[in-house]
Design brief:
The protein has a domain of about 220 residues: Aldolase class I (TIM Barrel), CATH 3.20.20.70. It starts with 14 loop residues before the first helix and ends in a 12-residue tail after the last helix. About 45% of the residues lie in helices and about 10% in strands. α11 packs parallel to α12, α12 runs antiparallel to α13 and α13 runs antiparallel to α14. By secondary structure, the chain is an alpha/beta fold. The protein has 14 helices and 6 strands. A 6-stranded parallel β-sheet has the order 1-2-3-4-5-6. About 5% of the residues have low confidence. The site of iron/sulfur cluster has 12 residues, from α5.
Length: about 325
């Protein structure tokens, strides 16, 4: 079960097992060595055992402490990327929920703590959570970052953490495209930081953690899918694609997106990256649903901007009710 082979334990007809990609970003527990497990505190081991027992008993609810927590301390950001509504809010609010007391209470039981943003490395609360509230040796820290501030003290601090994974949002390997999408960023400086992070990963004393190169497919970069896949795999990081949400700019180009995704899949197969192959196939499979979502959004936008709006909004609502929402994520190794 730890390494994802659940066939011997669970029925292959179980609806939760079959649809787990839709419910959970990650299903497998982290693997620790025997020595590591014996060095961890008892509350963590006891709670994890209770979770495993609960799974084996096929319970659908359990009264254990959570193993994973995902925090979103603020929207503070040093970039203004063209497709991003979060970065434009740029708030630096300290949410009381993320107080040290709350985290310290959960800390003994967690195996993963994810910090999102905004830009986590530009947010004092996120930095405090990542770098100064440590003390739980078993926690795998994970974050998603634009990479611009991952240097100097931040990089040294990261190098001391047990890291679950790091997502680097790059969107392109072309400096000109980068300028168009990632406003406020400098491609060559970010690439210096990316290479430094890869070095940290390769000599990390605790765990050789996975790094993902994120790429939001949008009108500026959809022709660069394949070059990005090869670029990431040559660097030794996994390309991770998502379709842009919140605007309809790809509606006229979805056939071309499909063609470029297929080219990306061929490269991922040649370079043998199972994560990339799975991720690109999921995006490819999502295209029909994505097309319908964009049509719905277009109708809604049109309705809001015209005098015959009410009728069109009704049409949009009917279209929406005929489409079921699906959110699928690539299972992480
Ligand atoms: C909001 S950012 C926060 C973390 C960090 N600042 C970064 O850029 O990675 C999280 C992820 O959302 C993605 N994103 C931003 N706007 C998006 C959009 N309109 N559609 C899909 N993904 C988007 C970013 O590229 C990034 O990978
Ligand atoms: S760096 Fe991240 S949070 Fe900031 S604007 Fe870009 S995508 Fe949004």
């Amino acid at each position: 079960m730890l390494d994802g082979r659940v066939g011997d334990i669970c029925s292959s007809r179980c609806p939760i097992l079959r649809n787990r990609d839709m419910f959970f970003e990650k299903q497998e527990l982290y693997a620790y060595s025997r020595d590591e497990l014996s060095s961890f505190d008892e509350p963590f081991l006891r709670n994890r055992l209770r979770v495993l027992r609960s799974i084996l008993k096929r319970e659908t609810a359990c009264d254990t402490f959570p193993l994973r927590v995902k925090l979103h301390p603020s929207t503070k950001c040093n970039f203004k990327c063209v497709m991003c509504a979060v970065g434009r809010k740029d708030e630096d609010t300290d949410k009381p929920l993320y107080s040290e007391t709350g985290l310290n209470a959960l800390g003994p039981y967690l195996e993963e703590l994810k910090v999102f943003g905004g830009e986590p490395l530009a947010c004092p609360t996120s930095q405090r959570i990542l770098f100064t509230e440590r003390g739980f040796a078993q926690i795998q820290y994970a974050t998603i970052t634009n990479g611009s501030l991952m240097k100097g003290q931040n990089l040294d601090d990261l190098a001391r953490l047990r890291i679950g994974w790091i997502d680097l949002s790059l969107d392109t390997c072309n400096p000109e495209t980068y300028k168009k999408i990632r406003e406020g960023g400098d491609f060559s400086r970010v690439m210096e930081n990316v290479k430094a992070l890869i070095e940290v990963r390769d000599r990390h004393p605790i765990r050789r953690f996975p790094i993902y190169g994120n790429f939001v497919i949008q009108k500026w970069n959809y022709k660069e899918i394949e070059p990005f896949v090869s670029f990431c795999l040559r660097l030794g990081i996994h390309p991770n694609m998502n379709l842009v949400v919140g605007n309809t700019e790809l509606l006229g180009n979805l056939d071309a997106v499909k063609k470029h995704l297929r080219q990306g899949i061929r490269s991922a197969q040649q370079l043998d990256d199972p994560f990339a192959i799975q991720n690109l196939n999921i995006v490819l499979d999502d295209l029909p649903l994505y097309r319908r979502e964009l049509q719905k959004l277009l109708l809604t936008n049109l309705a809001n901007s015209t005098r015959v709006g009410t009728r069109l909004v009704d049409v949009a609502k009917r279209v929406r009710s005929s489409i079921s929402d699906r959110s699928q994520k690539t299972a992480r190794p």
